[in-house]
Design goal:
Blueprint lengths: L2 H19 L13 H12 L14 E7 L3 E11 L2 E10 L9 E5 L10 H4 L10 H5 L3 H7 L3 E5 L19 H14 L7 H15 L5 E11 L1 H9 L8 E5 L8 H5 L1 H9 L6 H12 L4 E6 L7 H20 L6 E6 L7 H16 L7 H10 L1
Helix pairs in contact: 2-11, 7-8, 13-14
């Protein structure tokens, strides 16, 4: 079964959902504000961290190149601030992409795990309670390179190699995260941790990656689970170089009807600091992301969620679809609602990878469901 048939079924399903969400019985979105106003609001929320004048030469170094059976893995270092070196894996498919045949790139921020980039790139944690079956859910960088994408898996601040204490990493890495937080906020006391830092670091990595001749800089995506899902939802609104994104099990989107249906209420919200938190600011973030495609994946029984907030999101999806319609991209805010808890299981992975392939390779490029299943089952 090819993606032509798969997407026919998918589009039919999403079209039915779209028809329900945007029907006449539901609220309509107000006329969208200029994106610049929304971006200014988001940047103000992130506080006074590093600015354009603080951008440094990434000085990318290839620490090691490893050739594996079906892809190459480059271990990289690069500067994100004058005193902050980041590390990442760049996963490259075989045959190697070239200047004449560049490939789409997908950013793969990791979930909460001390191993950071390793967790999504095919490594087994050194000491962890996660089972082999559980680990398969999180290796989306490895999956994507095996499906023909270039995958970039960075360490977030306080994870992987980006630690400031001489102690082993752990599952949740609280000591390392707290130590990095203390160091960074001493330098930027009016900034927002950790997500403001993560957005900055992803953008600085992008500055470097778009200069690589084998990267198709017109087709860049992002995918993340849990902490990585938060990173997707916070980064996409601020960087239009990212064409499409998948956010799975990130922070709760607290839908605020008034900011979508009344432009005056939206402006009041933007100017009222006392009502802002990240769950509320996702409203502004999604507005700033439109019309670029986003796939939002959530579980109704995620243990980190509450029933009232979940019902609140359902109503929100209807209005968001109308907002996307006004921006000229009706149907490009896609959703997968499931009952598998805080997870990234095979059905969600298959949809995510096929969805990214559609938006980054184009509808004419075929990807078989059998190939996706084979990649997932071979791990």
């Amino acid at each position: 079964m090819t993606l032509n048939k798969y997407f026919t079924l998918l589009i039919i399903t999403l079209s039915v959902v779209t028809a329900v969400f945007a029907g006449d019985l539901h609220q309509k979105a107000a006329e969208p504000l200029h994106r610049e106003v929304l971006v200014d609001a988001l940047e103000a929320y992130w506080g006074q961290g590093p600015q354009e004048g603080d951008i440094v030469d990434p000085d990318m170094q290839i620490i090691k190149k490893v050739e594996l059976e079906d892809h190459y893995r480059w271990h990289l270092s690069y500067m994100v601030e004058d005193d902050d070196k980041s590390f990442a894996y760049l996963l490259l498919p075989k045959p190697m992409p070239t200047k004449d045949k560049p490939l789409p790139l997908v950013l793969c921020p990791h979930p909460t795990h001390g191993d950071g980039k390793k967790f999504v790139s095919g490594f087994k944690p050194q000491a962890d309670e996660i089972t082999t079956e559980g680990l398969k859910q999180y290796q989306y960088g490895l999956d994507l390179v095996r499906l023909g994408f270039i995958a970039f898996a960075p360490d977030m601040a306080g994870y992987g190699e980006r630690v400031v204490k001489d102690k082993p990493n752990t599952r949740y890495n609280p000591e390392h995260r707290d130590a990095f937080k203390k160091k960074w906020l001493k330098k930027w006391p009016k900034a927002t941790w950790p997500h403001g830092k993560q957005v900055w670091d992803i953008q600085r990595a992008l500055d470097m990656l778009v200069e690589l001749e084998f990267v198709d800089s017109d087709n860049i995506g992002i995918i993340g689970y849990s902490l990585g899902g938060w990173t997707v939802m916070n980064t996409m609104p601020l960087d239009t170089r990212i064409k499409a994104g998948v956010a799975n099990a990130g922070g709760t989107f607290n839908f605020l009807p008034r900011v979508w249906t009344d432009q005056k209420e939206l402006l009041q919200f933007i100017n009222a600091n006392n009502v802002k938190n990240m769950h509320n600011m996702f409203n502004i973030g999604i507005m700033a992301t439109a019309p670029r495609p986003m796939l939002y994946i959530k579980a109704s029984n995620d243990h980190r969620e509450y029933a009232k907030k979940w019902e609140n999101q359902i109503e929100g999806f209807r209005v968001i679809n109308d907002y996307y319609k006004q921006k000229g991209s009706e149907g490009d805010f896609d959703i997968l609602l499931h009952n598998d808890g805080h997870s990234f299981k095979q059905d969600a992975q298959m949809l995510s990878y096929a969805w990214l392939h559609k938006h980054l390779f184009g509808k004419d490029e075929l990807l078989s469901i059998a190939k996706i299943k084979r990649v997932l089952e071979d791990k």
